[in-house]
Each structure stands twice: as structure tokens, then as C-alpha cells.
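Fold this complex.
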Amino acid sequence: MLTPEEMDALQLSLKVAFCATLISIPFAIAAAFALSRLRFPGRSLLDSAVHLPLVLPPVVTGYLLLLTFGRRGPVGQLLEAHFGIVLSFRWTGAVLAAAIMGFPLLVRSVRLSMEAVDRRYEQAAGSLGASPLWVFLTVTLPLTLPGIIAGAILAFAKALGEFGATITFVSAIPGETRTIPAAIYGYVQTPGADGSAMRLAVLAALVSIVALAASEAMARRMSLRGA
Amino acid sequence: MRLDIEIQHGFANRTSSGAAPFTVDVSLSLDARAVALVGPSGSGKTTILNAVVGVFRPGHGRIALDDIVLLDTARRINVSQSRRRIGYVFQDGRLFPHLTVRRNLLYGRWFSPRLEQGLGLDDVVALLGIGHLMDRRPDALSGGEKQRVAIGRALLAKPRLLLMDEPLAALDLERRAQILPLIERLRDELALPIVLVSHDPIEVARIATSTVELRNGRVSAVHSAPSAKPVKRAVGSADVIPLAASFRRSAR
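Structure:
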């Protein structure tokens, strides 16, 4: 049904989106916790920074990533010198781009869910002898779980569809960084490749619809539980 | 139990309710098996409970239970909430909604001293009659069942003292009549010291061996009831702590 090239793009897209989501979850939980529970100087700055990828043109995000994490960028140089990690024009770079673009969605969902956790349960856990860390792990986090899952699904869908930042940062190298959207764009530009473009487009739409439905179902379960 | 509570704290008028700045100035030294704090809303009852359990730190104060100092601002002692081992039964139960009854009950066991004598799960389940609820979730329980599980959960954390904030207020008369005797048994058979906040005179009369009246953040009266019915039902428990209640009321 799919040509090997199209199959490559699908597999790469799934791999990139999966890794991007998985890596962002702990950071998103930390950011959501800081934003919803802590009062510290620079809090609104963090809030803005988290939401920036949502409002910046994706090309700009990709360009900033290239400047920072490219082989000559300050962070990119450090990573290569100390850990041998190269992000630019590799699939790992696509993961970073996808993670950054999906991050605001994930943080937002986790944060809403965490703010909805009734603090009185945490107080009850404390009175039973649980230290603050245990209270977080055994009460706050499980009660936030629906929001984490809903956010992760959204971030996954966003990562699958990410185009602008990815193609700017890591280009579209077949088998390495050419994800579904980049492949579709390529096929559209190529005479006679309409069939490929159409098949991938339908595939992308299907995956997105399923993800959205799953996220909605999760949100519904969450609101039922909260009632 | 001997409970010493000294709290001085001024609340700035930060609430939107428009209440005037409020000062709590309490000094109590109680020797009793069960103390009731009574008084109108805003008289400082919950503030005292929160200070004892450790979620509120007063500006100045000293709180000691028998020989254990929980808070002493002068000596910069403030035992963290999780180490105080003060059980708290809330008006609304506050069972963890994501855990079954069984796991709610066992929650505190992870943190309580393992070797210490105390009630086991089976004892508590039998005492409270909640065996048939063990695998349910809290949202499938009635108000009275929730409250019994909440009491059980607090007991299994092996508390030194049990605080109860209007534990029966959310229940109808019939359920109250079922749970009141349970609380009396905790007091008498388990010799568990209790501090109760309540608006209900019947509840206070049945549970408390002494009553502290609060008004505007101060102690306005202390009654002890050494004549309260002797503990006849506490068969075989020779743990009856001298009822001689000594109260010191101080107004600063």
C-alpha cells in the first residue's frame, strides 16, 4: 500500500513523535508544578518562555534552534564536545524540534489538571506521615495523571504534524529527518507524485483524528472523576 | 494525655471576607482524655487544630504532647507535619479518590514506625465494620462509610493524638448515632487522646472529658467533666488515665 519511501517517513514520524513526547513529559511536569505551585522571581518569564513556541512562527523557532543547537551554536558545540551528541540534521534534532513545539500544549494540560487537584488531599496525606515528596508522588501526580495523558496525546499529535521548525533545523533528509509533513511537502513539489502526497495526507489526518478523539475521551473521564 | 498549647498569632486582614484583623492568643494546659474545642465560627478552633497538626506555624507558640515538643518558636523547634504523627479526621473525610478503601486505609502504614505496637488492619476493619467496603472506591461510599474509613485510615497511621474537625457534621442523625459509639471506643478502649472541634452539644457531651470554649481567638472558659460517666464499657482496659483535669487559663 505504501512505497518504501512513504513507509520510511511514517516510521520516522512515529519514532520522532514518540521520543519527543516521552522526553518532554518529565520537563512538562516540572514546569507545570513550578507554574502552578511555586512563587518565585522570574515565574512569569518562565510562563512566557514555555508558551513562546505556540506564538512564534515555527520557522523562527527552528532558526533559533539552529543558532543554539547547531554544530556552531553554543549549546550544540558543548553537546558535541562533551557527549558526542549532534542534533542538527539528525533525527534526534527532529525530536528536539518536535518536543519544543509540543511543549506548551503539554504543560498547559498538565498545569490545568494539577491546579484542579484538591490541596486538601495533600494535607490529608501529610497528616498520615507522608513527606512532601511522597505526597507529590502518591497523591498529586496520580490525580494529575488524566491531564498528563491528555496533554501527551496532544503533544504527540502536534509532534507528528510539526513541519516548520523541523525542516528549518534539520532539513528533510530521507530516512533521517524527512517526517510525514516534510515528505508530503516534497511530493507536492514533485511532478507526478500526487498519489504519494495524497496517501500520506490521508494517513496524517487519520492519526491526528484518532489522537484528538483519545485526548477528548481522556478529558471527559477527568471531568467525570472530578465531579 | 497532657497537651500544652500556647499560640500567639496575628492574622493581617488579607481575606476578601472583610473580616477585621484577627488575633489568636491561646494558652492551654490540659490533662484530659478527650478535649472539645467549641465556639462560634472564626473563634480560632481550626487555627489551633492546624497549628497542632503542623500545617500552620504561628508567630509565637509552643505545642507539646506529653513530653514531645512539636513546636517551640522560642527554641526554633518546628517538627514537620509528616513527623508529628497526629491523626486528622476531616469533616469531609478526604479519602484519596484514586485509591480503593483498602489502599486508603494502608496509606499511612508506609510512613509509621514499623515495630511499634498498634492496631493492625484486621483490628481496625473489625472495629469499624468496614470489611465489605475494602475493594470499593471512595466515590462509591455513603457519607457514614466514608467517615468510618477516614477514621480507620487515621488510626492505622498510629497517631499519638487524633484531631477531629466536626467529624459528624456531614452526616444525618442516624449515621451520627452509629459513629459516636465508635469514637467513644477509640477514647476508652484504645486510650487514644482526642481533640474534637464541634458545634454539636450532644457530640461534645459524649466524647469530650473537658471542653474549651473559644471566643475571638481567646479562651473564654474551660470546663472539665470529671463526673462524666465512668468508663464502664471499657472492659479490661486498665489504661484509664487519671481524670483529674488540671486547667490553667491564662489571658495575656
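The mean pLDDT of chain A is 90.
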